[in-house]
Amino acid sequence: MISALQENTAEKTTSPIKTAIIEDQNDIREGLASLIGFTPGFKCTGSYQSMEEALDKIRRDIPDVVLSDIGLPGMDGIQGIKILKERYPKMLILMITVYDDDERIFDALCAGANGYLLKRIPPMRLLESLREAVDGGSPMSPEVASKVIKLFREFRPPETVDYDLTPHETRLLKLLVDGHNYNTAAKELKNSVNTVKFYIKRIYEKLQVHSKSEAVAKALKERLLD
Question: Do residues 70 and 104 touch, judged by C-beta distance below 8 A?
Answer without folding.
Answer: yes
